[in-house]
Design goal:
This protein has ten helices and six strands. Helix 7 crosses helix 8.
């Protein structure tokens, strides 16, 4: 990888990584926790394939696609609580996605910058990322603050504003597993590459109109190409 880093005012290529379903290989844990939440409101379990076909952000839209109607406030509240409880139990057994640790290290050693922005709650995210031993590769690790269920776009704006001294949106590529990651990138004038290992089907991701890849290695290669 070439060195695109530059002094402040001439920012280099920057990656904003997503966490769940991108760096963390937790799709099976998420579907299991989702099914536990569904059971609370009388819904039967779904497969990973079906989950990827139906998944939407904001999350209440996903529930609507399964229920056939918007969830009530009470249904959303109980399923959200149950999902997070079950996910926390199952997340412990999840590993990083193939190649993630090596790619993060190589990117940093090549002189590039990268950060992590997740819709996983900030107070939970930081110790989890630290526990996987990869925190030092990022110049910023940031999770969601405020209620769950929304879009990443406003969080992305705040994330890049906090990095504005060294990172420019036009030299930034967001790597994630959801259409919402591409929406958030477009919201701030950045590029996006979407990975098929997480929450969406390939067909859903391709509708976003950005590169879609099957490995994180290809995601980094596309990121370099996008800002060459």
């Amino acid at each position: 990888m070439g060195n695109h880093s530059g002094a402040p005012g001439s920012p280099g290529t920057h990656l904003v990584w997503d966490w769940n379903g991108t760096l963390l290989d937790d799709a099976a844990a998420i579907v299991s926790a989702t099914n536990a939440a569904f059971a609370e409101i009388g819904l039967g379990p779904i497969t990973l394939e079906r989950y990827r076909e139906l998944y939407r952000i904001p999350i209440p839209r996903f529930y609507e696609s399964v229920l056939g109607r918007p969830p009530t406030a009470a249904e959303w509240e109980i399923t959200d609580v149950v999902f997070h409880r079950h996910y926390s139990e199952r997340r412990v057994g999840c590993g990083l996605t193939d190649g993630a640790e090596r790619l993060l290290k190589e990117w940093r050693l090549a002189g590039h910058s990268q950060s992590l922005l997740s819709m996983y709650g900030h107070d939970e995210l930081v110790p989890v990322v630290r526990g996987y031993g990869i925190e030092s590769h990022f110049i910023r690790v940031e999770g969601r603050t405020g209620p769950s269920g929304g879009s990443k776009a406003p969080h992305m704006r705040r994330h890049l504003e906090a990095l504005a001294e060294t990172v420019s949106p036009e030299r930034t590529v967001v790597i994630g597993d959801a259409v919402d990651d591409a929406v958030a990138a477009a919201h701030v004038g950045a590029r996006a590459v979407l990975f098929t290992g997480g929450s969406h089907s390939r067909a859903s991701l391709e509708a976003a109109g950005v590169p879609v890849v099957d490995t994180l290695e290809h995601a980094v290669e596309e990121a370099i190409r996008l800002v060459a």
